[in-house]
Design goal:
The protein is of the alpha/beta class. It has helices at residues 18-21, 57-69, 84-96, 110-116, 154-171, 173-181, 183-187, 191-210, 227-236, 243-260, 266-278, 291-299, 327-339; strands at residues 2-3, 6-10, 28-33, 44-48, 77-82, 102-107, 124-126, 129-133, 141-144, 309-314, 320-325. The chain has a seven-stranded mixed beta sheet with strand order 1-2-9-6-5-3-4. A two-stranded antiparallel ribbon has the order 7-8. Strand 7 and strand 8 form a beta hairpin. The longest helix has 20 residues, at 191-210. It is globular, with a radius of gyration of 20 Å. The protein binds nicotinamide-adenine-dinucleotide. The site of nicotinamide-adenine-dinucleotide has 33 residues, from helix 3, helix 4, strand 8, helix 5 and helix 10.
């Protein structure tokens, strides 16, 4: 598939023929997760910490220095293989090194395959929270090889499903119905069903990104369904929740908000909740979450303007729209969600 000149290839076993797929370059640098075996012999390799530890300015600086040392020029290619955190940092590194060099992303987690590796957003975490420093920079190639998921820990596997379910909610009722119907096969990790689910989620993401790469018209923003609550929860719970777990709870909160606003029926939330639970995702906030802190964090979200909280609410399946929300409405949702546990 092509996304604004960036190729996205979903191919079981595709990693085996990586050399043939790589763009022509004057040298390659591989950025890889310490925990993941490498498969390519580059000019230079950088192994970085697993997970969010990779996503810091310090790691980026180390790599820029290493690229200089290896004398890699503007014709070089950076290959990044790992989860979403590593890819976000590597994309940022590639977009700034010599004002931008060729980039190949090889996502290894489900979440990175369906979300983080698509759409060109990258970044590192800043002093005031996640993803504060970054650019939008499309890779030359995103190679999605679902075989890589074989070693993914259970919890990370579940985490990825949150973004798949989110994409289905954004796409429409038929997509939610498809997930419901194929749940047993997905739970068994049936390869062709998993591949179809990945393809479907990617198509939704591509559709929204292609029309609004720089997140300006509101089309791409639909992909943030559940994320205003989710990001705040992720920060408030400090490492207790994975990104996907926070998005799962966030989606259920966004669904509750949509019910409170009279936009959807309670079944909207129940179907989302059922799918999330069936794929081992949490749907209520961890016990003891500080609600006041959550509201304050939501007001500070990158997407809020002058402290006014804006949320994506559902007017139905496939009808996600942005709307300003009062703190009291947020508090009501958080309260309902907390006691529903
Ligand atoms: N740029 C975007 O558009 C975008 C979209 C969504 C999420 N993100 C970012 O992605 C990050 C979350 O990504 P994630 O869920 O992949 O988490 P992650 O990158 O933190 O990886 C989770 C864990 O899984 C391990 N892992 C990954 N692949 C593995 C494999 N195949 N086998 C064994 N272990 C493996 C990693 O070492 C890590 O410990 C967050 O930082 C989030 O902000 C970015």
């Amino acid at each position: 598939v092509d996304l604004l000149g960036s190729t996205i290839l979903v191919e079981r076993g595709g990693l085996q023929r990586l050399s043939a797929l790589l763009p022509r370059s004057t040298g390659t640098a591989l950025i890889v997760d310490r925990a993941i075996p490498q498969t390519h012999m580059p000019t230079v390799t950088f192994t970085v910490p697993s997970g969010e530890g990779a996503k810091s300015l310090q790691e980026a600086i180390k790599i820029w220095e290493g690229l200089e040392e290896a004398q890699l020029d503007r014709g070089c290619c950076i290959i990044a293989q790992g989860g979403g955190a590593l890819l976000d940092m590597a994309g940022f590194v590639a977009s700034c090194y010599l004002r931008g060099v060729s980039l190949v992303l090889i996502p290894t987690s489900l979440l990175a395959m369906v979300d983080a590796s698509i759409g060109g957003k990258n970044g590192v975490n800043g002093l005031n929270g996640k993803n504060r420093i970054g650019t939008t920079y499309l890779p030359a190639l995103t190679l999605i090889d679902p075989c890589l998921l074989d070693t993914l820990p259970e919890r990370q596997w579940s985490s990825g499903w949150a973004e798949v379910i989110k994409c289905a909610a954004i796409q429409g009722e038929a997509s939610i119905g498809w997930l419901e119907e194929h749940l047993p096969l997905l739970q068994q990790r049936d390869p062709s069903t998993v591949d179809q689910a990945i393809q479907a989620a990617i198509s939704t993401k591509i559709e929204k990104v292609a029309g609004d790469l720089h997140d300006r018209t509101g089309l791409r923003a639909q992909l943030n369904f559940g994320h205003t609550f989710g990001h705040a929860l992720e920060t408030a719970c400090q490492g207790q929740l994975t990104h996907g777990e926070a998005v799962s709870i966030g989606m259920v909160c966004a669904a509750q908000l949509s019910i409170d606003l009279g936009l959807v029926q309670p079944t909207f939330k129940h179907r989302l909740e059922k799918l999330c639970r069936a794929l081992c995702l949490p749907t209520a906030m961890p016990y003891g979450t500080d609600l006041q802190q959550l509201v304050a964090l939501m007001a500070r979200d990158k997407k809020s303007i002058a402290g006014q909280i804006t949320c994506l609410v559902a007017h139905g399946w496939g009808q996600i729209r942005r709307q300003p929300i009062e703190p009291s409405q947020i508090r009501a949702v958080l309260y309902t969600n907390q006691i529903s546990q």
